[in-house]
Amino acid sequence: MILMCLLMLTAAGCTEKKETVTESTAEETPERSYMTVSREIEEAGGITIQQMILPHDSPRRSGEVREIRGITIHETDNRYSTADAQAHGNMLLNDRTDITSWHYTVDDHAIVHHLPDNEAAWNAGDNRTRGGGNVNGIGIEMVVALGNDYEQTLVNTAELTAALLQTYGLTTEDIHMHADFMDKVCPHRLITEGRWDEFVGMVEEICAETEEE
């Protein structure tokens, strides 16, 4: 596990993209277009997002601008009671011994932003795979520390995920588990408790509610 584990709403955001394909064009489906510009999201689910962007000289910054193709969900698996989102932000800022990085950390009361959304980060374990979690994903870490309300963390993460999908014109099909990219049981609780579909359903519901407003 990592660590020892909208601006604009697009019509296509969140909801599944459906395309009508005739027999004559079945093999000519055009490639999707993805955004490469980072947009600051001020809040998600009523929580103001704290900006703790890593300095450019941090070894955890790749400096590599890429297409934003998806969102990768992790759990910190750091159960110390003090290991909240702010603490993880401080660790990324102060520990210069590693290149591991991700974009957001979420706990039961806070969302902390560490890297520009359009910058590649190293958290998915799939090296430089095109379209993969590292090169093209926005990495989100969910806090599982003792004393942290996991259920509220799940809600906050779903709110952030929905906001990101809408901002970058993605769909729920673009939400991935860390385990989709490497042989690791992460996000651990969502997988072992069989709650992944529930989480994606939460995101879909939030998207639907937002689009109705």
Description:
The protein is built from five helices and seven strands. It has about 210 residues and is of the alpha/beta class. It has a single domain (about 45-55, about 60-210), classed as 3-Layer(aba) Sandwich (Lysozyme-like), CATH 3.40.80. The protein is globular, with a radius of gyration of 17 Å. Residues about 1-10 and about 15-25 have low confidence and may be disordered.
Termini separation:
38 Å
Total DSSP helices: 5
Largest sheet: 7 strands, mixed
- Low-confidence spans: 1-12, 17-26
Would you report the number of β strands? 7
- Beta content comes to 5-15%
CATH superfamily (homologous) name: Peptidoglycan recognition protein-like
Q: Reading side by side through the largest sheet, how are the strands ordered?
A: 1-2-5-4-6-3-7
Helix-strand topology string: EEEHEEHEHEHH
Total discrete domains: 1
List the main descriptive attributes of the protein structure presented here.
single chain, about 210 residues, alpha/beta, Lysozyme-like, seven-stranded mixed beta sheet, 5 helices, globular, disordered N terminus
